[in-house]
Specification:
2 copies of one chain form a homodimer. Chain A has 12 helices and 17 strands. With 349 residues, chain A is of the alpha/beta class. In chain A, β1 (2-8) and β2 (11-16) form a beta hairpin. In chain A, α6 runs parallel beside α7.
């Protein structure tokens, strides 16, 4: 089969790789219907994290179950399934506590030491899924083609935006600021609106993303950053800042922006993988009772809750995909996201 | 009148100072009935924070209102009142948001730039209280002498322990670890039990404090620290750690202990003023979705909720005072706490 391999900085290639095979009894082979490029895929692509040797890449996909091992009971061949950006058993204590990203037996796509051998990356034609019963969620019946992007968003960005909002404690009447206008930030706007926020500020300088944020429920847009951005936010919210600030970038600058935009006693919900700055400044957090909650989003725990709203059209997170390409053009997909020509690119094998 | 003045490292003296006078219309003069020494008073006492010039010290007291300004409406001469360890108006947006320590008009006892002039420290005979309507809470009638220690604890340590528990999200059935066996840590045990924790571990090496922790509701005591302490805690809680860890010390070592004792998806509630280590390590927090909430405790917002339980005897935080001295022996009070001969010392003018 064909799958994406990263060789180094700005060098991703679609290559022939071995066809995956069932190997543990509890795994499944899924034929990928749609996958995509993640903002975090851009770090190795840009060389921010080095690529020591060529390896498979991609971790978001939806597809059709082709085969299952004899121990699998929750999905069967022919099912349309959503996979989270990691695999998990959904039976260990961490999964049951709602934190399936800390599954005691789970792992990451594309790793070569996964239960039963290699677990394929998502940017390919097929994926071997360890813990199929835990990892995969089947839709009721085969979804309409128009729903594929929305379903794919449940593999990562919609669940991650939701996690930012949940972690920040967004509830009915909350005032919310979203730092970041990428796919996750835009999904965080959807999540904040869905949870009942009374006012949602999108911090964005990009006209197209501002427009989508407003369609998703943002009531305000702030283009300023740094001290000016903080001043704008404070002026909007009683001079003190917002109840909940959703940090959806992952740099030390964005975290600083988030903390300083939060009112005393408010909460930062963060989901941007920390790519810069290894520490949080404790004094300003302590002095103003600003909480910091979040982390790598346990999206598997949120699939069921969000799935019905995607299927009904109540939320449309699939709109963050503003470019669709055949898998053969995966290199162009990376380039388009790298150059910010696309918010998020959907790939079809 | 007499009041305590710190001159430098291990040098506190009771001295004659000016009698406080009403000056703003909204202030009150309170005759101190009981005050105490705080763990945070030991920092300047030990020279950890330098004392550049002699200044008043002390910030926890209860007393009788002697005089009020013409604008004061909620307390009157003769009332027995509890003051929080700061003053606040309880009408600004932060106070209304439950974070009176961030009062837009409030401040700290012993500061010489406070509204209307000097605001006395608590370790003296009288205190001028700015924002008397906001800061002071009168008890219903004159309390029995036996209740004075418990009422005094609402000025700081009981409210602070409660804040740790609330910030960590302790609720019915939570598993809880308390890092710190000082007065705040012991009050945090009371708070965790009161909020319904199913299991409460006190991390303590001090037999007398262990005993009191158990009487307050601790189900377990762990003496180990560092890696061994973490291993003990994980072994007690499904191999992953506790739901809620209450950090009641304020050193980088205690925060590290707290974070590593928390299960994935769990929360550290911290109230120890950060005295060492200026930063929180974001990667382990992110990877395991461990939240960090808390800060300088807005105890004024908790007085009403806790007062009735102190008055009824349902909770007995006053038992953290294990030494009582006349104000004239304030130097000995500091020494007893410095040398850990006492958990907390109550002073009577």
């Amino acid at each position: 089969m064909r799958a994406t391999v990263i060789h180094g900085k700005r060098d991703v290639r679609l290559e022939e790789v071995a066809q995956p095979r069932l190997s543990t009894g509890g795994d499944a082979i899924v034929r990928v219907v749609a996958s995509c490029v993640c903002g975090s895929d851009l770090w190795p692509y840009r060389g921010v994290t080095p690529t020591d040797h060529p390896h498979r890449i991609g971790h978001e996909f939806v597809g059709i179950v082709e085969e299952v091992g004899p121990d699998v009971v929750t999905v069967k061949p022919g099912d349309f399934v959503i996979a989270p950006f990691y695999d998990c058993d959904m039976t260990c204590v961490n999964c049951l506590n709602g934190v399936s990203t800390s599954c005691l037996n789970g792992g990451w796509w594309g790793a070569d030491d996964r239960l039963g051998g290699f677990a394929d990356g998502g940017q390919g034609e097929f994926v071997r899924v360890p813990h199929a019963d835990g990892s995969l969620v089947a839709t009721p019946g085969k979804p309409d083609a128009s729903l594929i992007p929305g379903l794919l968003s449940l593999a990562d960005v919609m669940g991650t935006g939701h996690h930012a909002a949940v972690s920040a404690g967004v509830t009915v009447g909350s005032t919310v600021v979203v730092v970041g206008d990428g796919a996750v930030g835009l999904c965080a706007v959807i999540a904040a609106k869905r949870l009942g926020a009374s006012r949602i500020v999108s911090m964005s300088r990009h006209p197209q993303r501002q427009a989508l944020a407003r369609e998703f429920g943002a009531t305000d847009v702030v283009e300023e950053r740094g001290d000016e951005g903080v001043a704008r936010i404070k002026a909007m919210f009683d001079g003190v800042g917002a109840d909940c600030v959703l940090e959806c970038v992952g740099t030390s600058e964005s975290m600083d922006q988030a903390i300083r935009s939060t009112r005393p006693g408010g909460t930062v919900g963060y989901v941007g993988a920390p790519s810069g700055g290894s520490a949080l400044p404790i004094r300003p957090l302590f002095n103003s009772n600003i909480g910091v909650n979040g982390g790598v989003a346990p999206v598997r725990n949120y699939v069921q809750e969000l799935l019905s709203e995607v299927l009904s059209g109540a939320i449309e997170p699939g709109r963050v995909f503003d470019l669709e390409l055949p898998l053969a053009e995966v290199a162009e997909a990376y380039a388009a996201m790298d150059e910010r020509r696309a918010i998020k690119v959907l790939l079809r094998p």
